[in-house]
């Protein structure tokens, strides 16, 4: 047997001994991402020198546009909500025929969020048209595009997103598009999975590739994990010193030690490398607080649009001079569990005759798409083994369901390594096929 033949036989044996469903697991040494603390990675993301080189804003042919999908909202919303009666989005276009990527933002995030901007630059640099869309849980999407303004039922959110995508395409009939691609991060990744499933029957886009970045597997588990972070006990926070005062004091001392204020995207990484860095408990509280603000925004907006009277009295006059602070404070007392119990489940049961909370949880999570995900080769998942939104059994589900279409990174927290150059290269390689 020749050397080449022996090599071919060895390779064949190796392939046969490796399960075809095995996920692609990167070991920490070869991966090289430097932040092994999941909270720190979530907040500080990637050191600037390890990020991919991307085009500047002025080198991208882009503009913001708006579509009117729910004209009745002009009469349903208070007068000072006029800016969100149209849904805004961002389109970056190439100068020649090219594939188009839709990007769906994460929980509560607008189309212009920092992660959506990063992904836009990444895909644009590789020759794609890019459309950035707000999350169905953002107040602007709820007001301007959501039929029921009660996000959380994934099939309904996907339907709303699909209508938006169709409206965006109709607004640019001259844009030369060769194929359609879809991605989303965090909750936007879960939305992308349901949009892809919907497209299998409606066939408006026939997405060529769909990439899910750090999706919640069981949505309720992820929500519970994030809500619990707010309850973290933080040293230095007491009746006299709030958590915000503690963080503000650390930032003040950090800038005093540097001798100048430099607010850039490298700030948090550099801050965490300083003596003023946040502890694990403080970082957990910061992540949880950010999520609690998103929950409050959802609860407040959904209640206001639907006139439920849980947070804002139904006939309370709201105009440009009305302070919304008292209502937002009331909304902050309602975590995501509260929103689900008081607004989401009642709406779902009324519309669908639905049953228990457990039934809803299964329907709105990736578990509800298990057969579709298992048999759809165009869909891939990229996730982190230490992601704070994952619960027991979630990674096992992804391994069984996605097989070799799951890329699992050892570190990165929740979306913290998306702007790491290895992740960037893997994303581009997947879309290139």
Automatic annotation (TrEMBL):
It comes from Zestomonas insulae. Keywords: Kinase, Serine/threonine-protein kinase, Signal, Transferase. Gene3D superfamilies: alpha/beta hydrolase (3.40.50.1820). Residues 1-22 form the signal peptide. It comes from the Bacteria. This is Serine/threonine protein kinase. GO terms for molecular function: protein serine/threonine kinase activity.
